[in-house]
Amino acid sequence: MWLANITAQKAFAVAALFLTSGVSAAAIPSGLLDPASVSVAPAFATDVATSTQIATTGADGKPTPVPVADIPECRDCRDEDEDDQTTPSSLESVPVITVSSDDNSSDAPSKTTREPATEAKRAATATKSESKYAKLEKTLGKTPEVGQGYAIKIRSERNEASGVKYVDHYLIVVGYVSQTTEGNTVYLKFDSACYDIEVKDNKIEFKDKSDKTWYDFDGKFEVLGKIKSGLTHVEIEDYGNSIATAMDKKGYNLLTNNCRDFVMKLYKKIKA
């Protein structure tokens, strides 16, 4: 049959003749079936990169060009006598391009290869305490409360040559516990002052011994208890001066009007 000897491109041309306006089946020359009678010339159509046209006779008897778009010849559409020149492409030759999710073609690494974020290790918190605080903690026998005020009684003793110890003096230390943080270090302090009385020319005077290293005194330390909150050193000193003045009127007495009495009277005035 004649259809067995026509290629796919020529068949497409024949079909296009039937669909072209003004061309009837009777107008198709019998010689079209012969490849030698087909006039093929290059032409250009809208939106078609390359096309061909076939010259034939229309219904009015005039030559009519029919545009036919070129069809890529795939392997199944080529004539059987054409050699297969197709060479399979290698996947190894195709470059792999990574594009970030925000359409930015920068060299940022893809999410699949990014290393997980490592949490920075926090430095260990260090705690430091001053000597006054350390002495309060040791005397109290437990951790002092931050913001709380305490009163400490110090009993100074004198060693005799015979080996017997006698009470030499009494002092009182009053203050408040504070805490500050600098970087990763916590500082604990006992903001305190040391007071006592002194007899000079038979006169009892109030004395501030805060500049002394009372925490290193050789004696017995005892926490009397907590003191009122919010007291200032000025207020405490005023209480101490008032007590010393009252004691001076009676005159110093080793049994009833001495340094021990001063300590206990001042603590009674400021105790919580």
TrEMBL record:
- Key word Signal present in the record? yes
Q: Where is the composition biased (Basic and acidic residues)?
A: 112-122
In this chain, composition skew of type Polar residues spans 86-111
Region named Disordered: 76-130
List UniProt keywords, sorted A-Z.
Answer: Signal
Domain of life of the native organism: Eukaryota
Q: Where is the signal peptide?
A: 1-25
Protein name (database record): Uncharacterized protein
